[in-house]
């Protein structure tokens, strides 16, 4: 009987330890959600929800019937392919089956989750239609009432540097006063190694852009630790560090958001990090509507967190300005 009592005690103790371990792991993973990392609760306590802010999203299609997006998607929507208001997702062939491409829906859901009252103008474009499609989409965004523009796709038909026409369209877009956020790419490569991202770095420093362009890299939060996502492009370590100046990092690995058919699913990429930055920028814009795009960029860059959640320094060679820190940006904005 004593032996049985000791066994029950042992198993009970073991079970308690296992329960605590699992509970801690679940708690740890929960505390590392994107909303927690960027301290969205602080914005909510300030009654910030994105109301009054308009964002244009350039992407390859949107599920406008998704119940979680109907209130945020603007009735003003544009299809650069056929000049209609039909921005629905296209069917793609992947993994041996035809399925809807949920990229734009996922991106839009991320912004809406962070800033639920923001108005989003969806602009659908076909990435295989040539650089003139990009020019057309950027021109539409420039004419729209959006204050912020999310571009979670490669703006180069050739895959190399942006064309002169796309470059001019981006400058024209910036000159309308809009803040532009572009995903930095998923090649696990230094920015200056790729002609495409190198051309974006050069453009970001062009005086005509007026400091209104941000590149977004992706951070990862696996097993309770913070790191640069293994797929994310990163600034690198050139001697002058110019590639780090307009680069900021945000959660982009295993992000849950809206997908086709009133569903939710995970996606990873700097495509997911860019709308995280846009969502935060929307809340800053709501808090300080008088700030210009370059002022918001400055706030986000200078307030970015430069020490990891583990207490180690975040290298600018990997994280650029650091991980986006909404609470700090909002606090700094009071003194801008």
Could you explain how this protein is built, in words?
- There is one protein chain.
- The chain has two domains: 1-31; 38-333, Rossmann fold (3-Layer(aba) Sandwich), CATH 3.40.50.200.
- The chain has helices at residues 2-31, 34-37, 40-45, 103-114, 131-143, 164-175, 195-204, 270-287, 293-303, 316-319, 326-333; strands spanning 54-59, 78-79, 91-94, 97-100, 119-124, 148-151, 179-183, 213-222, 225-228, 247-251, 255-259, 263-267.
- Strands 1, 2, 5, 6, 7, 8, 9 and 10 form an eight-stranded mixed β-sheet that branches.
- The relative contact order is 0.15.
- Helices cover 38% and strands 18% of the residues.
- It is built from eleven helices and twelve strands.
- With 336 residues, it is an alpha/beta fold.
Gyration radius (Cα, Å) is: 21 Å
Mean pLDDT: 87
Number of DSSP helical runs: 11
Could you name the CATH homologous superfamily of the largest domain?
Peptidase S8/S53 domain
Measure the end-to-end span.
Answer: 73 Å
Order of helices and strands: HHHEEEEHEHEHEHEEEEEHHHH
Write down the oligomeric state: single chain
Report the sheet-strand fraction.
15-25%
CATH class of the largest domain: Alpha Beta
SSE class: alpha/beta
Largest β sheet strand count, sense and barrel closure: 8 strands, mixed
Task: State the helical fraction.
Answer: 25-40%
Tell me the number of strands: 12
> Would you give the CATH topology of the largest domain?
Rossmann fold
Shape: globular
CATH A-level architecture of the largest domain: 3-Layer(aba) Sandwich
Number of domains: 2
User: Which residues form runs of ≥5 with pLDDT under 50?
Assistant: 9-31
């Amino acid at each position: 009987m004593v032996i049985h009592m000791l066994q029950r005690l042992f198993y009970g103790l073991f079970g308690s330890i296992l329960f605590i371990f699992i509970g801690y792991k679940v708690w740890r993973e929960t505390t590392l959600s994107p909303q927690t990392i960027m301290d969205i609760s602080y914005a909510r306590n300030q009654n910030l929800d994105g109301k009054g802010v308009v964002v244009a999203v350039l992407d390859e299609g949107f599920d406008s019937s998704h119940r979680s997006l109907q209130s945020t998607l603007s009735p003003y929507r544009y299809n650069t392919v056929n000049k209609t208001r039909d921005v629905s997702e296209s069917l793609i062939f992947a993994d041996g089956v035809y399925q809807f491409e949920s990229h734009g829906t996922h991106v839009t859901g991320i912004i809406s989750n962070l800033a639920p009252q923001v108005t989003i103008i969806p602009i659908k474009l076909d990435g295989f239609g040539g650089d003139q499609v990009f020019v057309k989409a950027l021109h539409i965004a420039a004419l729209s009432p959006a204050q912020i523009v999310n571009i979670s796709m490669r703006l180069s038909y050739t895959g190399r540097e942006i064309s002169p026409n796309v470059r001019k369209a981006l400058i024209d877009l910036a000159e309308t006063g809009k803040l532009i956020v572009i995903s930095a790419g998923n090649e696990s490569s230094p920015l200056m190694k790729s002609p495409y991202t190198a051309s974006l770095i050069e453009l970001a420093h062009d005086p005509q852009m007026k400091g209104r362009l941000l590149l977004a890299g992706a951070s990862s939060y696996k097993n309770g630790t913070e790191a640069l996502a293994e797929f994310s492009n990163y600034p690198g370590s050139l001697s002058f560090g110019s590639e780090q100046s307009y680069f900021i990092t945000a959660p982009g690995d295993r992000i849950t958001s809206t997908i086709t058919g009133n569903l939710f699913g995970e996606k990873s990429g700097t495509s997911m990090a860019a709308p995280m930055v846009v969502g935060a920028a929307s809340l800053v814009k709501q808090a300080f509507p008088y700030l210009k795009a370059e002022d918001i960029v400055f706030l986000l860059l200078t307030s970015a967190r430069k020490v990891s959640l583990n207490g180690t320094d975040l290298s600018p060679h990997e994280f650029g300005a650091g991980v986006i820190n909404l609470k700090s940006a909002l606090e700094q904005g009071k003194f801008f």
